[in-house]
Amino acid sequence: MIKPFILSRGRLASVRYIILFLYLAGISGCTVGPDFVPLTPDVPAGWSSSRQAAPVDAGATSAEDLKCWWTLFNDPVLTGLVEEAFRSNLDLQIAAARIRQARASRAMAASGLGPTVDVSGSYRRSQTGGSQNPTVNQYQAGFDAGWEIDIFGGVRREWEAADAELQSAVENQRDVRITLAAEVARNYIELRTYQQRIAIAEKNLEAQKHSAKLTVQRFDGGLVSGLDVANADAQVATTAAQIPLLESSARQTIHALSVLLDRPIEPLVQELSPASEIPLAPPAVPVGIPSDLLRRRPDIRGAEADIHAATARIGVATADLFPQFSIGGSLGWQASRADPWFTSMSRFWSLGPSVSWRVFETGRTLSNIELQKALEDQALLTYRQTVLTTIREVEDALTASAREQEYRQALLQAVSANRKAADLATKLYVGGDTDFLNVLSAQRSLYSSQDALVQSTGAISLDLVSLYKALGGGWQDL
Asked: Where residue 42 sits, what CATH number does that domain have?
């Protein structure tokens, strides 16, 4: 018959006092090391570029204003590509795996606050001396429990650091998402820009071929020299040579999209090869104020979480300077035969506190504390650099957007004037009132201005993508 293990009243009281004392010591113990204080970096009150950027709205902004900025381009293909990238991009999946890793690390750190229990059992058959000595059997089973009391907060600081590292991993995934949306939009806009440049080149090539045909007719009639024919052919060949380069660049943007989407290249080429217009978004972007970025940009918040983790790890290292208190106990049965194994006669138990303190280790702990302080300084400097870089990115995007708008307006006038000049030069040449060099110059200027206008149209959309990315838009759906 197995008898229950019952502590006497006096023993039970002693155990209760020990556990109560150590528990109170743990919850009331100090937490060594510095406490993290949220940062308030010095940022400007407004954007210097916004005063020069008429198309940009410098009013307040919110998460909703930037939530799905790619939909403002009113291009269903672009919207579909961004949403597909969110589902399939490998970098985003890697970032999600890092979050799971950080969650597991936090759970491991939190487990240090609780007790541990080990169960063991064994059977041994032994003999000492010669065969004339008896064989001895030994049966043993029991429980061993231990609990380290976190009086000086080393485990709590470890938990705090792991929690901050989890937050950093979450912000990193959000930052990857922002970058991913911007990269998909950037490559898509570049693709459509190349396609429009190809269309412009092909249109000008047809006009130049027509001019070359005119020179041949006039040469056959003895009206012009062979120089006009050679110049016309040279211009046709020069323009035709641009098209393969543009087609190669367009194909490369599709290749880049295939990596971002984790899709085979060939089906994507078939899907995106038909030319389409460059997507345009409303130029007025509510940029808000610089301090908004501190709450919205994931890379800034992630850098702050890194400082928090580094600060907490100083406390982890500092706790090693102090003694460690723990309570341990065991309960088990041991017998030489199986039948009296679980009786009171074979029972043994122990319970009591213990303390350990490493009083000399040639400065290892102090060096570790200095190491963690240096890591905290690095995290702080990285944070400051991230804030400065963020402000620069927004200022650059605001300036580029404003200047590109002005540049495009001038190009619109240039294209109109060059088209008139090209038509007039052709008419005069046909009538014999001007030489072919004027026709060449007018056609070159027209093609150059039309190509520049297409590039500027694409640049305006790319500047808006850069601005939305710099403002931290696109992660709020997480």
From this structure: 1.20.1600.10
